[in-house]
Design brief:
Layout: E1 18-20, H1 22-41, H2 52-69, H3 72-80, H4 83-86, E2 87-89, H5 93-110, H6 116-120, H7 125-135, H8 140-187, H9 194-204, H10 206-248, H11 253-260, H12 268-288
Antiparallel strand pairs: 1-2
Amino acid sequence: MAEGKAEAKPKTSKPGGRRPDLASLAGVALALGGILAGLILDGGKLRDVQQFSAALIVLGGTLGAVMLTTPMKVLLGAFGRLGSVFFETTHSPSAVIEEIIGYATQARKQGIVSLEQQAAAIQDPFLRKALNLAIDGIDLHQLRSIMELEITLLEQRGEAEAKVFEAAGGYAPTIGIIGAVLGLMQVMKNLANIDEVGHGIATAFVATVYGVALANIFFLPAATKLKARVREAVHIRELTLEGVLSVVEGMNPKLIRTKLEAYAPAKPEAAKKAKAQVEGAAKPAAAEG
């Protein structure tokens, strides 16, 4: 007869994969498509807004102004985060909760020191650090303080990187006006030819279109999306920290699950089930009355 079944070890969750953010991609496509479609319906042509010199003035001027405003380290960090505007990392609060429940169950049976081997294999650096500090026996208050500092620094870094695109969104329309004025200066040289004047004025205002469009279609929305990404990351880390602290406190895994589920969005099936349970409990009470 076998001595007993080996206890299942808690599985470490894999880091979230990256997938295209359909909202961002569709949003840019819809905005550009709507503007260009309106231009064509009004009798315009795509070549009316194809001005390399205007694009050079707006992009070069905006980048120069942002570089003057922003420290280089923050600027490079913002460029590095640009991909997260169009690609999102799949964070699953439910997966993190299940992983922490597994650690809590093992720690409750064998002690938190038994998690040392599992902690070394955790791929999430925040969870790995928090759990290793807990295994080392650090004071609960110090553990919370250290990990909350990491969350705060993450939030501050993300906000600084988002402000780079906010600054670009503020400068681009003004640089576009500068480009328009430069174009009008060239128009003034050809006042004798009325046809050239009309064409030159239309060309001059393309720079303004570029500046306003870049600000409102890309730079400002990108800043908002980056802030949303930071909020998601902070949310997952807060969940993780509360879970690890609960494990250290020796809380019952069922209570830990109840506590952490507040961080996870309720699934429609679970909400319907809970509603059905409430209604089922209410019917006997009404019948008795």
